[in-house]
Amino acid sequence: YDDEQHELFQKLDTAYLHDFQQNNIEDADLKHGGPREPWHDAHSRIEGTAAWDVLTNFQQ
């Protein structure tokens, strides 16, 4: 999770210790320099009629 503090790399050995998902890179772990880029990869969920509005905007 990335927030306004941008602490991803400061907390690699604590909060994000097991947050590695790089199957395409062998040995992507702390012993080999770190696992991830600081992308904003948060997702959302939209339900109900608002979801149709989002779909319409996406299709346009």
Automatic annotation (TrEMBL):
Recorded GO MF terms: phospholipase D activity
Per UniProt, the keywords (alphabetical) are: Lipid metabolism, Repeat
- Name the GO terms of the biological process aspect: phospholipid catabolic process
Coiled-coil regions, chain positions:
none
Q: Which GO terms describe its cellular component?
A: plasma membrane
Report the domain of life of the source organism. Eukaryota
Q: Where are the transmembrane segments?
A: none
Q: What is this protein called?
A: Uncharacterized protein
Organism listed in the record: Nymphaea colorata
